[in-house]
Amino acid sequence: MIRFPDILRAQVARLHQAFHAAIVRTGYANGYRCLYxxxxxxxxxxxxxxxxxxxxxxxxxxxxxxxELAAAVSHLGDGSGLVVCNGVKDESMLALAIDAQRLGRQVxxxxxxxxxxxxxxxxAAEGGEIPELGARIRLSGGISPGxxxxxxxxxxxxxxxxxLVEALEQSPEVLRQLTLLHFHPGxxxxxxxxxxxxxxxxxxxxxxxxxxxxxxxxxxxGGGLGVNYGDVGDVPTTQPNYSIAEYARTIxxxxxxxxxxxxxxxxxxxxxxxxxxxxxxAVLIVPVLSVRKRRxxxxxxxxPPQSCGSTVMxxxxxxxxxxxxxxxxxxxxxxxxxxxxxxxxxxxAEGRISLxxxxxxxxxxxxxxxxxxxVLQDAGARLPAEFRALAxxxxxxxxxxxxxxxxxxxxxxxxxxxxVMPIDxxxxxxxxxxxxxxxxxxxxGRVNRYVSADSDTSVLPMHAPRPGAATDLAFxxxxxxxxxxxxxxxxxxxxxxxxxxLDEDEGKGYRxxxxxxxxxxxxxxxxxxxxxxELRASMGELVDSRVAAGNMPSHSGRGIxxxxxxxxxxxxxxxxxxxxxx
Length: 582
Ligand code: PLP
What we know:
By secondary structure, the chain is of the alpha/beta class. The chain has 20 helices and 17 strands. Helices cover about 40% and strands about 15% of the residues.
């Protein structure tokens, strides 16, 4: 992983400048501050960099769990940054937020369920006073499912309007402590009109609460500001239909309009924008380990004697594309080839054809299908879905030294396509295509969709590998969510990383500021409850028993133990690499 902290800083500045410009343009009589949501990328260096870059803009943090709150509190320092504490709260989490307030920091617990109102009253009863609070509301309109994969039509969290009205009737004293109103419209929201509608609805609630005596100062419009991951052919995607500047202008204008109409002072605007700050700063470099090609039928291969009709038919198609003179005939041929292949597979499963014949039929199937697909491609024909799946099966499998489950969880879980491209031979037109597969034993461990202008976005245009030369691919926009959502499937751990910072004083214009080793095999196993000492001890016992029985010289036994110890200290990926701890 290559991390570029300068990109984090640039994004922080870009977002604040967009809001500043919108505020000036609209004549908005208050300010804007971003709260970085820790969950989007909680790595300490990432959070610290964002806070440092955002200090001049009054940047704060959003947290949503016990651990995130502890991390956020650790960043409070001497700053005046606001911390908004979302998430389901237990008493100790609420108490920590209150303790931080007692220490003079603005840490706002956000009430998001009726039960939390009651908890605030009881925690405060012990300490005597009700803390400064926020409330999260659940919007009924404006956001609906569709293009926006994470939009929240029926959000898990937040007070409904009915909850809010009831809570305020029961606890008017809480209203006087309410300084922040929050809603969250979803993540990677594609349509600006939906964000506008949500902001309008929330602004109405804000104005109403102010008119009823709430001490509100902040309106927090949550996350949702989308980034452009690139187009995936004509497959519907969640690319935003707006820029950062348009997002800022819309939020500022809508809140201004509602507040002016309702004659209430405009709030300090907050947004919990995470993806837009972090997505671009991290690039994952993935080495290609091998390319698994489907074998074709050689011209000289003789068919096994008494081959069945389907094998003979496949071989005929493989050798001359007879009859496929127009696209209709080619589609027809493709269907017959596919059927012939399935027939051979059934015959083999029933023991009616030999392994040799089955192997020949498979090669003939690959050659024949590729020939007909080329005819279709040359004619510019659009493949129906079933033939696209067949074409995909014939594409080379490119085995890459990574885990989709660890490094690309949003692709696995939500079908998000990320920009992927080679990092060298950039002036050469890619002549080959491939489907990227990972090291895990799972068939889900593959990349199914690519950012590409091609009509077939299920394959990646690539360079044909050069014998002896390494091929490395870069996966871009890895900085938001991917690093925390990933799992340890197959015990593939964290990758090694370097942090690269621009530096004009360096000859190359940049410097490598930090190198972080990959998770070692021993560290990965420790997370699963295995201790390195025990692993080594049990290996030692095995060796001792062989040596004691006279089956192995002791120096060989010592060599095995040395290699095992080294292995445990290396990384979990196929090429342990220089970053791995030795
Ligand atoms: N705030 C809350 C409460 C969230 O749940 C999320 C993510 O879903 C965010 C902020 C961050 O959203 P985004 O990354 O779209 O800016």
